[in-house]
Design a protein that fits this description.
Length: about 70
């Protein structure tokens, strides 16, 4: 997939902090920002998943252990 440019206005202090951080660690700013955006998208998806599974019914641990045959019985 090809690369495209995204134009975003950010606070000047934030930009300088990102540039300084990347320089100090030998990182490329565009790569750092791309990874940060991907991480944030994944976090938001995880939050949606948590909201959905929070309402799923649960089972007692003893039942799960028995079903997985981890209780020592054949």
């Amino acid at each position: 997939m090809g690369k495209v440019q995204i134009n975003v206005r950010v606070d000047e202090a934030l930009k300088m902090a990102v540039v300084q951080f990347c320089r100090s660690r030998g990182l490329v700013v565009s790569h750092f920002v791309q990874e940060a955006l991907l991480d944030r998208l994944e976090e938001l998806e995880d939050i949606d998943d948590l909201k959905r599974i929070r309402h799923e019914p649960t089972r007692p641990l003893a039942d799960v252990i028995r079903e997985l045959q981890l209780d020592g019985t054949p």
